[in-house]
Amino acid sequence: MSDPTMTSQSVAILQEEVDKLRHELQTLNTDHPSDLADDQIRIADYLLARLTQLGVTEMFGLPGDFNLGFLDYVEDNKSIEWVGNCNELNASYAADGYARVKDGSIGVLLTTFGVGELSATNGIAGAFSEHVPVLHIVGVPSTSQQKSKPMLHHTLGDGRFDAYLKAAQQFTISQASLNNKRTAAAEIDRVLTDCVIMARPVYLMLPTDLVHEKIPAKRLQTPLNTQPQENDPEVEAFVLDEIMKLVKQAEEDIIILVDACAVRHGVKEEMRELLQRTHFPVFSAPMGKTAVPETYERYGGMYVGSISRPEVKERVENARLILSVGALKSDFNTGNFTYHIPATKTVELHSDHTRVQFAAYHGIGMKRLLPKLTARLQPLNEGAKLLSVPKFLSPVPQEDNQIISQNWLWPRVAQFFRPKDVIVAETGTSSFGILDVPLPHGAIFVSQILWGSIGWTVGSTLGAALAARERQLGRTILFVGDGSLQLTVQELSVMLRTGVTPIIFVLNNSGYTIERFLHGEQAKYNDITNWSVVLSFMSSIHVNSSVFHQEMDKSSRNVWRHRREDLSVIYRPHKGRTLQTPRRRVIRKS
């Protein structure tokens, strides 16, 4: 191959299609001696069986007349639990949070045609932006109605039954509109495979009549092919040689910079092998926080361009070669585009391509490349151990007043965290504050730094807490401002009903604090209702309704009582950038 950079993209596209055809042929030719061979299964149950194979145990969403038939099958399913949300937007946030914590699986959202699905679009767009695998199932009118185009409710009244599909194409990586039972299973498999491999949302239209149709169950014997395609051996070997040339030129002065897509595209295990076998210093971008354990002795902290700690900025920008893994170079993720790392000393590994200095090699994905690169770099480990790494520490400052400053708050709450906690931080002071403190081993950091939808964390916390409970992780802890909380606070009711018990810190800023510092510090449009008063009112309500007690079992009432005492830690605003209470509230260490 004379010029790999010119042909790698077309080869990758062709190889992807060949892999899909090969898997489809394998599926069709499956001939296992099984009861499934001649069995029939309803399309609804086929979809649920595939989701079960992917490890899905929760489905988020709302009932609507076009998805009620499918919901009957969900309710009867023994593996997947229905989590009814307060609205579709919150449900999409919950599916996103679930997928982020449930490694190797996907989030699933169910809405109804038009009015329901469009309400969820913001959440789906955020999942697309941040590479989160979510399946959006939409119950739609029957196939005959889609052809005859009557003026049904939830339509635009002009016969365009495909308008919402066209909208979804802007925010999902793959779509399927089921229109006959012969191709339904293959279409379901296609979008699910794309969802997992590409780590992006997908969209599935499920007509009311096809839900009940029976199809052969034989395909279920062949698991979905959720592994990325193989790299072209010749191009991959060339890329490895090019990287090793740069390693030699750098005289082994290398650092590793890990980012969001190392998590989203499932290379944490490959990263662990790379670090343990090479011992090169490693840093992370904000969206890559906890991709590498922050207790690891060769971890140096957070690189955020010009706003990095001085010792981190100096170490990263003066390295002779930066091996970047899974980068997403957004504004907040790069310190407002202030990276000072020239392409001439950068190798970027991505899910579907590799970039060596200025050359891009499409189809050379990091999942397959990293183990081979690790093997080539391992002989350098003795020299790598000698490379300096700054210590990532955040001691609590000793301040001579009772003001809760940002500088004091975040190192202090860091002492409260435990190993394997799931820590969710709303965009703003919460996410930026948490970024600069080390988290315990096995902790998972969840934040929406690129999309930044206000209120996302409350719905996301529901999904994250359900996934954490299933994975037997630690506590789920949310940090959210009062302005963000009020957008999605309804999901607290779903947390009570599902029995999850996240710890929620509400930073009561009496308004939109980030916006105040951007524009309109004294403007009324940045004022909101005082949520300190609202939450105090809610927690003091004396419930004596016999109907309520019949609906809420004893465990749920205990959850509410526990949260009243320990969950809501409310901070009041003070002048400038500090937060003040009459005294510092005690935050237990664990």
Strand content: 15-25%
How would you characterize the largest beta sheet? 7 strands, mixed
Shape: globular
Would you count the extended β strands for me? 22
**Which stretches are low in confidence, meaning pLDDT under 50 for 5 or more residues running?**
31-35, 542-590
The number of helical elements comes to: 24
Mean pLDDT: 87
Main-sheet strand order equals 11-10-9-12-13-14-15
Pfam families: TPP_enzyme_C, TPP_enzyme_M, TPP_enzyme_N
Subcellular location: Mitochondrion
Family: Belongs to the TPP enzyme family.
Keywords: Decarboxylase, Lyase, Magnesium, Metal-binding, Mitochondrion, Thiamine pyrophosphate
Overview of the structural elements:
The chain has 590 residues and is of the alpha/beta class. 41% of the residues lie in helices and 16% in strands. The protein is built from 24 helices and 22 strands. The protein has a seven-stranded mixed beta sheet with strand order 11-10-9-12-13-14-15. A seven-stranded mixed beta sheet has the order 16-22-21-20-19-17-18. Strands 3-2-4-5-7-6 form a six-stranded parallel beta sheet, with helices on both faces. The chain is globular. It is found in: Mitochondrion.
Q: Which helices and strands, and how do they pair?
A:
Layout: H1 4-28, E1 40-42, H2 43-53, E2 58-61, H3 68-76, E3 81-84, H4 88-101, E4 107-112, H5 115-119, H6 121-129, E5 134-140, H7 143-148, H8 163-168, E6 174-177, H9 181-198, E7 202-207, E8 214-216, H10 233-249, E9 254-258, H11 260-264, H12 268-278, E10 282-284, E11 299-302, H13 310-317, E12 321-325, E13 346-349, E14 353-356, E15 359-362, H14 366-377, H15 381-384, E16 403-404, H16 406-414, E17 422-425, H17 429-435, E18 444-446, H18 456-471, E19 476-481, H19 482-488, H20 491-498, E20 503-507, H21 513-518, H22 531-540, H23 546-551, H24 554-566, E21 569-573, E22 579-580
Parallel strand pairs: 2-3, 2-4, 4-5, 5-7, 6-7, 9-10, 9-12, 10-11, 12-13, 17-18, 17-19, 19-20, 20-21
Antiparallel strand pairs: 1-8, 13-14, 14-15, 16-22, 21-22
Protein name: Pyruvate decarboxylase
Domain Thiamine pyrophosphate enzyme TPP-binding: 446-524
Domain Thiamine pyrophosphate enzyme central: 241-356
